[in-house]
Amino acid sequence: MLTADFYYNFPEHLVATKPHENFRTMWLGANDSLPSEIAKNELLLRLNPGDVLAINDTRVLRRRVTALNGLEILFLKQISANNWEVLCPASKLRNGEEFCLPNDINARLEARGLPQKLWVSKPFDENYFVKHGELALPPYIQKARGNRKNYPEEEKWYQTAWAEKLGSQAAPTASLHFTNSDLDFLRGRGVQIAPLTLHVGMGTFLPIKSKSLEEHHMHNESTQVPLSTIKIISHAKSKNKKVWALGTTVTRALESWGHGLLREDANRDFIGDTELFIRPGFRFEVVDGLFTNFHQPCSTLLALVSAFAGRDRVISSYEWAISQNFRLFSYGDLTAWTR
Length: 339
Description:
With 339 residues, the protein is an alpha/beta fold. It is built from 10 helices and 18 strands. The radius of gyration is 20 Å and the shape is globular.
């Protein structure tokens, strides 16, 4: 399919620049011809006793560092003591060009590409990022704000209520709508909460540059689906109950397991670095319902939702939501889809 098939227009003023406690939800069930808006309490009641809600327990790293020349560097992975994989606006740098980071550290661009390779003059660990780094908000939020610096509240806004395992470059943003009290309410109704981990990286947030989806390469993301979660899901499936994925990262992790793309470790958890690209034509083995935010045009995330609910239905539903002034993207409103 052509990447351009996943384009839609949206007004810039609908890009959410901070979360709202009273978020809105666009609902489109498997048998619905048109989307509708439902309140949060009604949404929670649509999960029935015996259903499963799978959640991502990853925690976002403070890995974006601003160089002394104003250049923003997102540190992805340490290759060796003095070498990192990074994302930065490399068009502003020549190979071999040096610049300064905070704490008297020199840096040099070693190689372009995605990701780039960066040399640093002194080794540093996570404590460096705690002092000098910040959470890497999506550029469209910075653009909509007209400000590239994070707000102090971001440390709370851009982490889920159950964030635990440090490792993501971006938040699993569908989860930002919910609280631990919401999970307790669902447990009280007999809904099983099943955690897993997918550390969000380039596979999730890099745009599609190719003309067709088939030409796009998904970067891998570290994934762990615990044995306890597998048991919960397998039992629910045996009783014909629904498995709901809270976000596209959860969907990608569960379907990676369901398609045999992860390996079993000594604890019988399933782990691996998944490169699964879910796009129209994909066969879903695990997920029956999907909660997710509105996604950018021509993105891998929009392709995933289109695979789940149908491209034409997704694009027409987005157009309806825009006409109703739903708030868009990471800090925006929620969508809910069933098969």
